Amino acid sequence: MKTIIDSSAEKGDEFTDSIKIQKSVAVHVQCRKNYTRRSTIAAVKRQHEEDQTGTTKISPPRTRARSRSDDNSKTFTARIGFENDLVTAEASYHHDCYVSFLNQLTGVETGRPRDEPLILAMEEIFAYIS
């Protein structure tokens, strides 16, 4: 907790006060490592300095945008909304989150389609055998 609090204070982010009042927080191991890494903290400080001096480097616009409006994309947008340059911030996806973000199906059943006649036939066979 001390390392996370110290990193938050050093970055000057909005989490410092809310983290201080917590007894513990649940954080992915990789997220904690990324958040407390010296190079990440330096990148955030550099970004703050660029924002204050007005010399921010503007990233080129993306050619593809995620148009699906789902909970994962809203959560993701809320987490990175304050970042101007994700490369500088050393942002990365968790593998499972990345897969979920790309392949999320809404309202679609997964797996094989149900073959009702086959299921009924198999039930009759099982009933006959037992």
Order of helices and strands: HHHHHHH
In helices, the fraction of residues equals 55-70%
% residues in beta strands: under 5%
Span of the ends, CA to CA: 60 Å
Overall shape: elongated
Count of DSSP H/I helices: 7
Tell me the number of structural domains.
Answer: 1
Structural class: mainly alpha
Q: Which residue ranges are poorly predicted, with pLDDT under 50 across at least 5 consecutive positions?
A: none
| Biggest sheet overview | none
Number of strands: 0
The average pLDDT value, as a whole number, equals 76
Rg on CA atoms, Å: 24 Å
Region (Disordered): 40-74
Describe the structure.
There is one protein chain. The protein is elongated. The longest helix is centred in the middle third of the chain and has 16 residues, at 38-53. The chain starts with a helix and ends with a helix. The chain has one domain. With 130 residues, the chain is an all-alpha fold. Helix content is 55%, strand content 0%.
Question: What's the short story on this structure?
Answer:
Helices cover 55% and strands 0% of the residues. It has helices at 2-11, 16-20, 29-36, 38-53, 71-80, 95-103, 116-129.
Record the SSE blueprint.
Blueprint lengths: L1 H10 L4 H5 L8 H8 L1 H16 L17 H10 L14 H9 L12 H14 L1
List keywords for this structure.
130 residues; mainly alpha; 7 helices; 55% helix; elongated
